[in-house]
Write the structure tokens for this entry.
Amino acid sequence: MVNPFFQNKGPVKIDKILSFIKTENKFENLEDEILDIKDLVSASNKDITFFHSKKYQHQASTTKARYCITTKKLSNLLPNKCKPIEVDNVLVSTAMVTSIFYPNAITDDFDFQTLNIEKTSFNNSVNHGQNILIGKNVKIGLNCSIGHNTIIESNVVIGDNCSIGSNVIIRNTFIKNNVSILDGCVIGKKGFGFFPNKDGNIRYPHIGIVIIEDNCEIGCGSTIDRGSLSNTIIGKNTFLDNQVHIAHNNKIGENCIIAGQVGFAGSSTLGDNVMIGGQAGISGHLKVGNNVQIGGGSGVIKDIPDNSKVMGYPARDLKKFIKENK
């Protein structure tokens, strides 16, 4: 369930893909049709994927993708059945190929098809305030409430016993049961994914969604970006304080507590029972283990193993930090 809300324009012939990214790679069957672009783990033998860093060599070694956008140095790490497409810049080429399959996922214009809730079937089934707008393909469960001036745009599923505050915008999101979204949150918008270019930055299409599991609370003014080629997930019973930013593709575990003004760059994974103090920053593509405690104001720039307590910049063992700052 990576992209249920975005229309896939596939299949696309490999010849078109090669010509679009202007690569010199050659294959015998240029009429070969590719159904979709997916990450290394979820790709099938009818899909294309990408591999840009040795950090993902384990996933690359077992991918089932038919083709993989990668570099010459990394191509030998792929399985024999996966044909490498060698390029100079993997991420730029991946963005270009994704835009072929999902051209409508690049922009995030407002939903002009919304209706006032009083004109929808939710008028009598949802406890709501004034000036609520509802888009198409929206489902709302039992015993839910929505505050004033909130917009539930197209492609949102909300479970039972959920409370959505005032001045909230939600799109491309699955919200499970017993979830509270407090005032001023923005959930499901595209992530900060682009590649700098002197002639104009190249936008990366975000075709994933946001999934918020049961019993979560999202604090006032927080933002949760939808995923690019995978989903952004908030695990069960996790509470976010006010003004927390969760970037695209992050996977937050269960029973986590994240204090105010914490920021996550993209594609990091947080284990279960993690506690993070206010104004800490988590860099992208990292793995934070289970039962980890991160002190306020810390900067996490490398993986943190299970059961660790860290603080400072760069974040390091708490006892070592205290000793160094006596």
